[in-house]
Amino acid sequence: MTLFPPINDARRPPPGHGCALALQGGAAHGAFTWGAVDRLLEAGKRFDSICGVSAGAMLGAVLVQGMVENGNTGARAAMRRLWEEVSAIGAIGPLQRSPLERFLYGSDLSSNVMWAGLETAMRLFSPHQLNPLGHNPLRPLMQDLLRPDLLAAPEAPRLFVGVTDVETGAPVIFRNAAITVEVLLASACLPLVFPAVEIDGRAYWDGGYSGNPPLEPLLSPLPHTLFLVRGQPARRPGVPRTPAEIMNRLNEIACHAVLETELNALPPSIAVITIDADPALGTLPISSKFNTDRSFLAELFEEGQRAAERALEQTDLQTEPLPA
């Protein structure tokens, strides 16, 4: 298995012509989404509009920046850099495991002492008590990667980032030039892990609670094709037993319910192509969402690529090879 394989294509495909892209969140499982989108770009897909929440929002932001700089090749390089940096942050974080733990438990962090302590603390204390200053290891990363000038460029695809208003529970959408580091952190703000992110006097949580992701922003103008990359399993075998497993499954069900309502209301003229996460993510434990081991992210990336390939084959929308 190659970790974070190099990008080989150097050709710029034509504009999207009515293709939209919807990206779910999923914390470290967002590497699955990265792999899926990378395969779509490799196949020559171009997107006029993109909407994402949580990890999908961060991926969408760097994707758009890369497209402005160098088309699909630039987008693929920008996404790879994001996940390389995420892995580097995790390598010096508190959830370190011994080689024996990695061998015995794979992606599962449940045996890790630090994870057990974090899980217990989240049940007993709020993030406002544990993290009153709102420290987020992703803030310096996004400060380094985010390029507002590229997001606001006239040729940039339309980018929408969803957040959830804590007081009203309603989705709030930020677009291109309005997307800042704080907006991206708000879109990925897990209420049990981080304090709510305040923007212009309003407090926001993870966008997945009110739209996972919101589809309405992608409907004007109406696309002919919508690619939906699921970053969370719609189905999970077995009955959750621990408090953390129960809470995780409740969150998954709630987030998917919002999405399914929007999917059922889409105009029939839109071809919806879903890249399913169930085979890759359906049996992974909740702790793996916090696992940023380079090898694990690479596995998810490859799973995402395979899932996208299956979707392309099944829908007969595989792009013809671009001329040399």
Unreliable residue stretches: 1-16, 317-324
The biggest beta sheet reads: 8 strands, mixed
Gross geometry: globular
Distance between the termini: 28 Å
Q: What letter string, H or E per element, gives the SSE order?
A: EHEHHHHHHEEHEEEHEHH
| Rg computed from alpha carbons, rounded to a whole number of angstroms | 19 Å
Q: Number of DSSP helices?
A: 11
* Quaternary status: single chain
Number of strands: 8
What share of the residues does DSSP label as strand, in percent? 5-15%
Q: Approximately how much helix is present in the residues?
A: 40-55%
Report the structural category: alpha/beta
Mean model confidence by pLDDT = 85
Question: What descriptors fit this protein?
Answer:
324 residues; alpha/beta; eight-stranded mixed β-sheet; hydrolase activity; NTE; lipid degradation; PNPLA_dom
Describe this structure in words.
With 324 residues, the chain is of the alpha/beta class. Helix content is 43%, strand content 12%. α9 (243-264) links the parallel β7 (225-229) and β8 (271-275). α1 crosses α2. This is Patatin-like phospholipase family protein. A motif (GXSXG) lies at residues 52-56.
Summarize the SSE layout with pairings.
Layout lengths: L18 E5 L6 H13 L6 E4 L2 H37 L7 H7 L7 H12 L2 H4 L7 H8 L2 H4 L6 E8 L5 E5 L5 H7 L9 E3 L2 E5 L18 E5 L13 H22 L6 E5 L2 H4 L12 H22 L9
Parallel strand pairs: 1-2, 1-7, 2-3, 7-8
Antiparallel strand pairs: 3-4, 3-6, 5-6
Helix pairs in contact: 1-2, 1-11, 2-6, 6-8
Protein name: Patatin-like phospholipase family protein
Keywords: Hydrolase, Lipid degradation, Lipid metabolism
InterPro entries: Acyl_Trfase/lysoPLipase, NTE, PNPLA_dom
